Amino acid sequence: MLLSVNIVDALSSAYPVIDVRSPIEYNQGHIPNAVNIPLFSDEERTEIGIVYKNKSEKAAIELGLQIVNPKLNDFILKARQIAPELKVVVCCWRGGMRSNSFAKLLNENHFTEVKVIIGGYNSYRKHVREFIGQPITMKILGGYTGSGKTMILKELVKNGQQVIDLEDLANHKGSAFGGISQPAQPTNEHFENMLFYQLSKLDLSKEVWLEDESRNIGKVVIPDVFFEQMQKAGLYFIDIPKEERAKFLVIDYKSCDRDLIKQSVLKISKRLGGQNAVKTSKLIDENKLYEAALITLGYYDKAYFKMMQTREQSSIIKLDLPKVDHQKNAELLFAQYCKISNSC
């Protein structure tokens, strides 16, 4: 059975999704968990585009058929591997010729239900932006660098709280050092797709916890409408002594490549100050990571304090904590949250 469905119905079907766009289109952004079976390689798609522009639509279609026909059996085999129950959703850019021709091929080869997304990936992107833009009740966990905020958020999940880990989605810890030992960052477009995917699994009638971030997480940018809500949300600020945070950073980064750490120091050398940058690099060479961490924290603490001043001060709840202990600190934070919200 061959069906055309809107994006909401497609996402709620729980069928595997096959994205038939070219690899470059897919890598720019796709429906999370969708599998790419490209009708055309990037080079083939470019060649067809040139023929369309210089000759005609008919000539481009004929070239496309010449390229695709030898691949048909391979398409069917791959689709069966992805959807062994023979029920699948098919997606291209606009839900046009590519997805419909692929869907027809599957339908003619014993797939029992094949759904084509009306408007394709383009309609998915519109849905993502609208969903992310809706009002969300947020609670923000803030604190100076090295406070162990990400681990505290994980503990909050154990307490039944809803959490979105933006740094995990961005493959980056936020600072100049945040990309060390991390996978490649997604595009902004795909970061939004994954943010939507995580949000769609939550009950948005309830509060969602996030870590306080600047607008940029490495090269990824938090969507404006979402970031504005984060800025207006209540902030739970955990204040831990610099010396304790430096100890935590040493543990966190001790197994990392020293040259990568020094390269990250260079990224902030102007803001750190020339002499401090040179001194920090020398300390890293001498394996004195604690002393190096203290210098960099001097810069990051000032930068974060300045960022925090842009918030409505009455929305900030401060917790003085003696050391970086994510389990204990999560308990104290949750107790304070319950006391204020009266909802636990």
What can you see in these coordinates?
The protein has 344 residues and is of the alpha/beta class. It folds into two domains: 2-129, 3-Layer(aba) Sandwich (Oxidized Rhodanese, domain 1); 134-341, Rossmann fold. 53% of the residues lie in helices and 14% in strands. The protein has a five-stranded parallel beta sheet. Helix 7 (120-132) crosses helix 10, helix 8 crosses helix 17 (326-341) and helix 13 (258-267) packs antiparallel against helix 15. The two termini are 49 Å apart. The mean pLDDT is 94.
Summarize the structure.
Helices cover 53% and strands 14% of the residues. It is built from 17 helices and 12 strands. Strands 1-5-4-2-3 form a 5-stranded parallel beta sheet. It has a 5-stranded parallel beta sheet with strand order 7-8-6-11-12, sandwiched between helices. It has a two-stranded antiparallel sheet with strand order 9-10.
